[in-house]
Amino acid sequence: MAASGLAAILVGATAAALGTVLLKLGPRQDPFAANAVGSAVSIPIAAGVSFALGESHALPSTAESVWPLLYLTVAGSLGAYVIMSWLVNRWSVTRTAYVTVVVPVIALGLGSLVRHERLTGLSLAGTALVFVGLFLGMRPRGQLSAD
Predict the structure, then answer these.
(1) Which pLDDT tens digits describe the chain residue by residue (147 residues)?
(2) DSSP string covering 33-71, please?
(3) Cα–Cα distance between 64 and 144 in angstroms, integer?
(4) How far is C-alpha 49 from the chain's CA centre?
(5) CA dihedral (50, 56, 61, 64) positive or negative
(6) What are phi and psi of 26, to 5 degrees?
(7) Domain boundaries, given as residue ranges, for the chain
(8) Angle CA(124)–CA(126)–CA(132) in degrees, nearest 5?
(9) Count of helices and strands (H, E) across the chain
């Protein structure tokens, strides 16, 4: 992978983490309004970078290509960001961050159900590892001690 791609991933992950922490530190906000403001700020930035990089802006032309776009827009973006914002208002940032490791597990399940993709032993083992990590990481403090 190119260094610029790795740098983009690092910047994106850092920005997401910073946004989550800032949302938690500020006054409690409506998840829909917070995401509307975030989207309004980020759309011109993302569009500017996209045009500067010369990316294609062709719209989907078949029903087969529209459904994934609609799913990613509604569930993957609107739904996920609103749920994360709602959780940040109720949980700690650390606990909320654990939710993000479930996303690949959901993608595996959807791939298997919708596209009939084969689940390998390694992907099932990874899924089990994710759930063990969630179980251990989300337990209240002090419950792992041998008291």
Answers:
(1) 689 889 988 998 898 889 889 989 988 889 999 888 888 998 999 999 999 999 999 888 898 889 888 888 888 788 888 888 999 988 888 888 888 888 889 889 989 998 899 999 999 999 999 999 888 888 877 655 444
(2) HHHHHHHHHHHHHHHHHHHHTT---PPP-SHHHHHHHHH
(3) 48
(4) 21
(5) negative
(6) -80, -175
(7) 3-137
(8) 105
(9) 7, 0
